[in-house]
Amino acid sequence: MLTSRPALAEALPELAAHPISETWLAQRFAALAGGDPADPRVDEAALARALRLMRAETMCAVMQRDLDGRAELPEVTEAMTLLAEFSIRAGLTVIGRELQAIHGIPMTPDGHPQTLAVVGMGKLGGRELNVSSDIDLIFLFEDDGDTAPPPGAQGGGGGLRLLSNHEFFTKLGRKLIGALSELTSDGYVFRVDMRLRPNGDSGPLVCSLPMLEEYFYVQGREWERYAWIKGRVVSEISSEPARRIERQLASLVQPFVFRRYLDYGVIGAIRALHEQIRHEAERRARAKPARINDIKLGRGGIREIEFSAQVFQLIRGGQEPELRVRPTLAVLGVAARRGWLAASVAAKLSNAYLFLRRLEHRIQYLDDAQTHILPTTPEDRLAVALAMGFPDETSFMTVLDEHREFVAEQFDEIFADKAKAGGAAGQGDCECPPQLWSECLADETQAADLAAQLTRLGFTDAAGSLERLRAVWTSSRYKALNETSRSRFALLVQRAVEGASGTPEPDAILARLLDLLSAISRRSSYLALLTEYPRALDRVLHVLDGSRWAAGYLIRHPQLLDELLDDEALAAPFDWPAFKDQLRRSLNGHGAEGNVEVQMDILRRAHHAEVFRILLLDLQGALSVEAISDRLSELADAIVDVTISTVWPHVTSRHRDVPRFSVIAYGKLGGKELGYVSDLDLIFLYEDDDDRAPDAYAALARRFVTWLTTHTAAGTLFDVDLRLRPNGLSGLLVTSLESFRQYQFREGGANTAWVWEHQALTRARFCAGDPEIGAAFEDIRAQVLASEREAVPLAQEIVAMRRKVLDGHPNPTPLFDLKHDRGGMVDIEFTVQYLVLLHSGAHPALLRNAGNIALLREAARLGLINEPLAEAAAAAYRIYRKKQHKLRLDGVEAARVPAGDVAEERAAVSALWSEVFGAAEAG
């Protein structure tokens, strides 16, 4: 290029002094064409020549900076992307102006001007354009209609040859392609590839948005979802018609590419696409052996890194807005940050990608050819090795092979056909092929054989299990499945039978698993997940075997199946600050910020995933009952805190950027004894002298409760109980800090806090929101609890309240109610509350919200109660909680057990109660 352009050779040092920028491109075009693209003096001929000269200058400047080591890969690809965008926009401006002078302005049916939107796909869309790349384009326009004379045209524009919009934009598209790709004495600008448009080469050159929408939902294929990940409008987006079509296009593309559920079905689609690409590469290599070293399409090449990154986008992008980015390295970064890909693996894939892309450029620098194949001549191979910074070809090839081997290994790990492997290993004792089970069950003889097989496998109710299986095969849900899903479903049913046979209750486990499969049958991605990853099915069986409640939770939230694959997340420590930071990023990410429905679903999915993580650890025996409650309470605190900060911007009456507002937790959350399905007992406090504050914080509280309790497509978060606020249900929804203080201390009158409210205060704590208000609440709590009280009246109040609680929870069964019956958990909790209210003034250690067991021991240490009785009651409380927890996991609503199972514990609790409250009971 420099030999044929002496002036360019002379100007190159100055051209290469700085990175290519939009400003530089605009200035060079104006100098070369005699004006900017909007200047009427710039015609198509001037456009074509200026763009080609600019391309030569840009190419040489980029090469010089790259080979000198002054430009990293992002600068190189950004420079080529900027050149492509400028060329497209300039071409549309110049050619569009000339066509409008002949044919008029394209209009929508309701009279608005239209523009041609050019969508850049592939490397252009991802701002990753290489130095000798085709540009993949799609031409779109808003709607059918016709051209019309411009407003104020002389003579009404009668001399114009009016066209349909489709005809006009087709002409514009063809001329733009020519302006970019025709080879002249000045060269070319970019080769243009239009094959990614709907229906490819057989489809129309330009496409209206209604046609594109119909195509997506009727004919759109999985590989097109992959292609559209990088799709981006590269024509101008500053005018109203351009912004309008960009908005409409985004609303069509996002649901097509990013499904609202976890889409594991895409693994097979990408695997099939890659196999086609690899087979084609191998076919070409056989025809021309030099092609064996294709660093893009060959084994371990650039395409495998792109596939390995973008599979995360297609699987998770519908639920994770953070993944809706285009550059490959950005996707790898998100996957590593979220723990979906090990950080070390992401780093090595990124390094391999940078190495291969730099190598791709050096191969293309040789002859300005769109090739990804290592040169065959020794001279060129050595030149490439030296340009990559290696002293010789051998050392260069060693590093190249290391990168390619690692990439290939990772690709195979992600895309190996685990379904086939699992299917081959899973034939077991069920001799009827999976796809023929429906026929086998319909035949009496074969059904009898299946019943015998089930009996041999340990099923005690073979007839009942067969009936459940028959119901599945004859259900409308199964009949509605396509062939692929039916095959997967059948294979999973067979594996379910075999997996359930290894559990203590195979009939019950099979019933639960069939319920789960029925629930997910219409989500092909979930069927794909369980067939692609047999390990996930093993863990499903473990969950179903471990807990009836867990089985129901998984059936209600099948998206949690994804968590069964995440060993690293399961083993990672609970980091709630990091959890909140990540959740806030998701809530404020692309497509989520300001969208209430999306944000509410993000909150729910994040909560469900963490609950399920705790549940899995629980079923593994890795957490004590106390640790489970601690984790669930910490999670609730985190969700409450993030919800406040997310809801506040939606409050139209807000008067400050950060609310002076706090949430106080009572009850189980206050005592950090939260269970899997516990309500949240909350009150709301604020400290703000602004006249607008009461209304603003009341609106915040209402919205906050709505966000927690509303049932959305992703489920619910919590039920919220607000009855413990000052004056109960008749009181204000939010209370100022000063009003709360006065309510707690005022003597007499209707607004005086009752003893039972002070009992509740023993288990209250600051949960989330403004920490200064939280600290002030803790001070008020300490003062209230430490107030001087008379022992006898206090004991009588608490004994009376205990009778009311017992009367309010009758137990008509011979079983012992672990919580409410005498000698149960409420007796222990009331005893602790009495000790705190009576003695914390003299013994501040009792003010700590440390839980009932710790406070019992502290009271014994202080000599307030008998130590052996305290230890026995504390041990009983722990046993009660374990039994209650086990019953809850088994789906039992009322935690009741045979009285004889806890006779010793009941006696210990009753003895402590008698020691503390004997006199009051007698009175």
TrEMBL record:
Region (Adenylyl removase) location: 1-419
InterPro entries (UniProt xref): GlnE, GlnE_rpt_dom, NT_sf, PII_UdlTrfase/GS_AdlTrfase
Keyword line: ATP-binding, Magnesium, Multifunctional enzyme, Nucleotide-binding, Nucleotidyltransferase, Transferase
Molecular-function GO terms, alphabetical: [glutamate-ammonia-ligase] adenylyltransferase activity; [glutamine synthetase]-adenylyl-L-tyrosine phosphorylase activity; ATP binding; magnesium ion binding
A GO CC term assigned to this protein in UniProt: cytosol
Domain Glutamate-ammonia ligase adenylyltransferase repeated residues, every copy: 43-237, 539-779
GO terms (BP aspect): regulation of glutamine family amino acid metabolic process
Enzyme Commission number(s): 2.7.7.89, 2.7.7.42
Cofactor(s), names only, from the UniProt record: Mg(2+)
Catalyzed chemical reaction(s): [glutamine synthetase]-O(4)-(5'-adenylyl)-L-tyrosine + phosphate = [glutamine synthetase]-L-tyrosine + ADP; [glutamine synthetase]-L-tyrosine + ATP = [glutamine synthetase]-O(4)-(5'-adenylyl)-L-tyrosine + diphosphate
NCBIfam families to which the protein is assigned, alphabetical: PRK11072.1
Function: Involved in the regulation of glutamine synthetase GlnA, a key enzyme in the process to assimilate ammonia. When cellular nitrogen levels are high, the C-terminal adenylyl transferase (AT) inactivates GlnA by covalent transfer of an adenylyl group from ATP to specific tyrosine residue of GlnA, thus reducing its activity. Conversely, when nitrogen levels are low, the N-terminal adenylyl removase (AR) activates GlnA by removing the adenylyl group by phosphorolysis, increasing its activity.
Name assigned to this protein: Bifunctional glutamine synthetase adenylyltransferase/adenylyl-removing enzyme
Lineage: Bacteria, Pseudomonadati, Pseudomonadota, Betaproteobacteria, Burkholderiales
